[in-house]
Amino acid sequence: MKPYPRSAYDRTKGLVYFARMLDKIRLKAARQLREDYFENLGGGFDGRCCRLLGIDYAAFCERVLAGGTDEEVLDWAYAQRAPLTDEQLLVWNKFMEKRGWRDEDDGSTQELETYKAGSGLAHRTDLVTFFDYYEVDEKRRQ
User: Fold this and answer.
1) Are 32 and 3 in contact (CB under 8 A)?
2) Checking CA distances to 26, which of 2, 12, 60, 83 falls within 20 to 30 Å?
3) What is the mean pLDDT of residues 39-55?
4) CA nearest to 99, candidates 68, 70, 132, 66
5) What is the pLDDT of residue 26?
6) Which CB contacts under 8 angstroms, 24+ apart, belong to 131-137?
């Protein structure tokens, strides 16, 4: 069985999701990333993170695969633009940690519910965010 990327909750210099995005890039290059992750590479949350950092996903992948620690890669991203302020980190982290919870204009969670149903987790009313869903779907939590 192929390994899962790290938890979206893991932080790199205070930034959630970044380490997960790095893992997906590295796992894909090593041919260890499950194919069901391919569709959203560079899009979805990856795309949001790259836009936040002001970096191109393809250039980012090249830098990740050139080597270095997660912190060194984030330093590279920050060198392309100004580092995120504490307020920007707070807004990003809280937005990402709550994504999926009442996202639709009508207060529903349709996108998250679609993912849960596709994984056989539609019955799990305790999974109210995408981060929660990842934790259970990827077997880090029951």
Assistant:
1) yes
2) 83
3) 96
4) 132
5) 98
6) 131/7, 131/8, 131/9, 131/16, 131/96, 131/97, 131/99, 131/100, 132/100, 133/100, 134/7, 134/8, 135/7, 135/9
